Amino acid sequence: MSTSTSTDLEQLARLSQQIRRWIIRCTSQAGSGHPTSSLSAVELMTDLMFGGHFRYRIEQPDDPANDRVIFSKGHASPLLYSLWTAAGVIEPDALMRYREFGSPLEGHPTSRFRMTEAATGSLGQGLSIGFGMALAARYIDRSPSRTFVLLGDSEMAEGSQWEAIQLAAHYKLDNLVGILDVNRLGQRGETMYGHDLNAYRDRIEAFGWRCILVDDGHDHQQVMQAWDEVESVSENNGQPIMVIARTIKGKGVASLEDEPGHHGKPVDEDEFESILADLGEPDESIRGQFSDPIVYQANPRKSEEAGLTDYEIGDEVATRDAYGNALCRLARKYPRLVALDGEVCNSTRSKRFRDDLPDRFFEMFIAEQNMVGAAVGLAVRGELPFVSTFAAFLSRAFDQIRMAPYSNANVKFVGSHCGVSIGQDGPSQMGLEDIAMFRTIQDGVVMYPCDAVSTEAIVDLIADHQGIAYLRTTRGKTPVIYANDESFSIGGSKTLKESESDDATLIAAGITVHEAMAAAKELDAKGISIRVIDLYSIKPLDHATVRRAADQTKVIFTVEDHFPEGGIGEAVLTSLSDHPTPVNSLAVRKRPISGSPDKLLDLEGISAGSIVAAVSRWLEA
Amino acid sequence: MSTSTSTDLEQLARLSQQIRRWIIRCTSQAGSGHPTSSLSAVELMTDLMFGGHFRYRIEQPDDPANDRVIFSKGHASPLLYSLWTAAGVIEPDALMRYREFGSPLEGHPTSRFRMTEAATGSLGQGLSIGFGMALAARYIDRSPSRTFVLLGDSEMAEGSQWEAIQLAAHYKLDNLVGILDVNRLGQRGETMYGHDLNAYRDRIEAFGWRCILVDDGHDHQQVMQAWDEVESVSENNGQPIMVIARTIKGKGVASLEDEPGHHGKPVDEDEFESILADLGEPDESIRGQFSDPIVYQANPRKSEEAGLTDYEIGDEVATRDAYGNALCRLARKYPRLVALDGEVCNSTRSKRFRDDLPDRFFEMFIAEQNMVGAAVGLAVRGELPFVSTFAAFLSRAFDQIRMAPYSNANVKFVGSHCGVSIGQDGPSQMGLEDIAMFRTIQDGVVMYPCDAVSTEAIVDLIADHQGIAYLRTTRGKTPVIYANDESFSIGGSKTLKESESDDATLIAAGITVHEAMAAAKELDAKGISIRVIDLYSIKPLDHATVRRAADQTKVIFTVEDHFPEGGIGEAVLTSLSDHPTPVNSLAVRKRPISGSPDKLLDLEGISAGSIVAAVSRWLEA
């Protein structure tokens, strides 16, 4: 794009002022919101999107050639929506329903507003999501799309931003552009670096980004010059770009400019009219234009049927190995499947996929927050990301995981090394709260297979499933118990052993299924008949089978290699909340420590021997 | 300390070799562990601890004047334990029980080994903990203690490290020294920067730390020179220090040196003897000495009784305000109480404490992972940290929170803005999974008071309690329902309404207590008698009262402003797992959105009206 004329700049100035009016009016109408945080970024974003540099076809929002914009500072949603109003996508009347119950224009952007690329509002997450989107554009779509991420200065304290900054430089994503709105003021006072642009530049440049400084982020000439420079440098030099602009929080409202104490509040009611008057004549019909995307030919990706891995019943295979096998086997059935891992692919076994299809594997290093954010970015761009690390380390990214549903992000999580059964490495490496964590994801799927065959089937199921899914895998080898062509379902279960006169039911998943089967055998020999259910689908849960067991047996014992809270026991209790049959939960209740897997299963009362003792004791009481 | 003589260096070399033998022998004995990661840091740590620079009195481990060492790369535990063996604290025989079931020498360091400052093993957490300990030393104890943190290069990808780096510079902690063991190799291959020391220096210096480079981290002369330099520069210049050393993973074992593929494995059994032979003659009795701590006079801190805040029944007060009041009121009763907040103190109301006692308040900016790590560091140094932010944002630090119990860290967490009842800001700001998260903490306390009086009492209770506690506070005002001198207890509850012929029980906490009381009043008018229990202590839970309600009423309804999984409903179900009375859980099941609090409580079926409808429907069915 050529340098702007003064007519262009005047038009951008008029548009900016109207956007300011919209920001102030919609937040005042709502009685809540963050106008001052929105006002500081008006020129930056107006000039980006309507100054000839932002390539987007409104009629085809999903076109891989479109540029993308993410508001990492999600509380500046009034600005985001005002920009889309200026683009003609939102009617001004609808904008005035900002934050109202039922309006898609929520307090922080979510997928309910169709132009939101990804939900934000929990700070420090947008750059990772943008990194993921840029990764998709550069390495998968091979499209000319650029991803622009509006960042607040306070949120640069978040470590996740520095993960994104490292990884973006490592992946040479010169199609990723951050816009750092340095308005000096956080929520409760000044940030660590105030208006010192060089403080940001020194740090970000040190990580290999190219920085472009804008002394006055409200001067259209300077801002457009920055956008011109971004355009000219971002060709193939491998450096992500950070535009760092000195701005004024509350710019445009004299009484608020650069004043602390006004974060997250609409303007004073009694100043409302005079503030609008200061912004000049309203122009509700003013609009701006995007540029056209560069012509781009997508590579069609074909899907091919996948065969089955051939396991023999009795083979000793770790379910984490079956995961690695499944990824490779299903790669051609799901041509958009990509794998991300956090420096542990040899442990999670995603390494098999990495070695097989290196172009579809992305090493994310020891930076789980960014890995999850990147997966969200990849997912909203239509990829099918499988994210793996130790189950315990997925807790590092719980904030990113809990936000993912609000982007409708189709991400699959795989946590290995679950439970005390990992043994001697000890509790820092043990996933003991991961089932609880993932169960809290609304409509999330939580699967915990016990053998290689069910694992592979479940990888296929969750790849096919639309929505967030979690697969828990085991470090140690376990015997294959299912035939290769056995079928499984989300919400299903397998009753491995039952009779018409079962005394008790054992409900288990993963490693404890094998303990339960061994216990059942031993109890059988003592004349106690045990039903055993493999609850491989923890959420959703097979209520009918569980209820039938509650109807037909005297007591249910759940057995899990996980803390009691929020796990399989509580899931079963919830399912039977109106049923009188008692449910006893065997779970990890003692402080977990280093030791051999067998000793730890015994310590925690979830080994076959412990199950036998617990069930016998209950039935004899 | 003066520059080392060649005799000193020879002694350090001999000690280093014996430490190498211990590392190799204990991991081979255990059959697991990370010898190569331990071997790369031998000279660095041996020379630090036994070269005259580490001031520590073994007989008084808790002396505030002691220097501190933390292994952020916790998998190098063989080195940590070998160093303490060299110090004479661990017997070599005991070292050989590394990782055995029952041994305090766990796979990654935990509090079960008495010299562990804080548990590590989940990477990227040690620098935050060290930051907290340095904060305690500099700003609270005002002691000469220095905190040394051994860091791996791969874990520098973790954003939490960059949070710690920012905050340490901001707080001018020149008593914090990082030791960056740049051995080039992560778990599955090379790190992003390999052996490029300048890559680390450029980045860390940009954040204001002073960097000291060591070209050969196995050359005692160079390493001791670095420690001499640390000693000379660390006086009062306000810059934290990073020693960045080029090292070799597996140093000392020729076949493993700098070779990928050997992470986390003991040496080959058939090479064991020759490897030991290459390390020279064993010297099981060689020991090293620490230096004496600088004489230091602790300021005694006296505790004074606290009064009560005076609330009137019926006053409308947000429990978050009561939290702020309680902190101030209890400050003199708990002289070690300090408050940390993540840039939202005006929202969490810890601002009152900040304004009252600024020396005991530490702004942690928008960096929750580091905030929690810092709190662990403060706690293990004997402070009483209260950590506050929005409940939703505590999920950002779940990994740090789940690790805290293994340090026996006495940290109190306070999450504000819980539930959909925060209203228009929308789901990114709503804590809806925090009860589930904190319930998974073994022996953790989870409290959720409904009014100002109970909130203040509970702050006192959890301050007095030894162990991790979580307090959930509400954004909106709620009426005071308790008298100022009402007593509460961890594990207690309040039955607000009961009769001998109650039809149903409502169990609620926090904001839903008020909804439940209003519902009960309405149901009363319809001739339905309702018992109402304020379950302010969710964990531990008042089993006796809950069971009595299950015995005496037909049905229990739990009502919570939280997702169903892992929350109050499941806690009550677990309590009544052997009881036939049905339990129905009212919780947040619909996708949360922006809107007024009232509309959202209705949407989610947890408002008074919804409760009335649900209970009536059930009883009429």
TrEMBL record, chains A, B:
Pfam families: Transket_pyr (PF02779), Transketolase_C (PF02780), Transketolase_N (PF00456). Its EC number is 2.2.1.1. Residues 317-480 form the Transketolase-like pyrimidine-binding domain. This is Transketolase. GO terms for molecular function: metal ion binding; thiamine pyrophosphate binding; transketolase activity. InterPro entries: THDP-binding (IPR029061), Transketo_C/PFOR_II (IPR009014), Transketolase-like (IPR051424), Transketolase-like_Pyr-bd (IPR005475), Transketolase_BS (IPR020826), Transketolase_C (IPR033248), Transketolase_N (IPR005474). Keywords: Calcium, Magnesium, Metal-binding, Thiamine pyrophosphate, Transferase. Belongs to the transketolase family. It comes from Neorhodopirellula pilleata. Homodimer. One of its GO terms (cellular component) is cytoplasm. NCBIfam families: PRK05899.2-5. Its cofactor is Ca(2+); Mn(2+); thiamine diphosphate; Mg(2+).
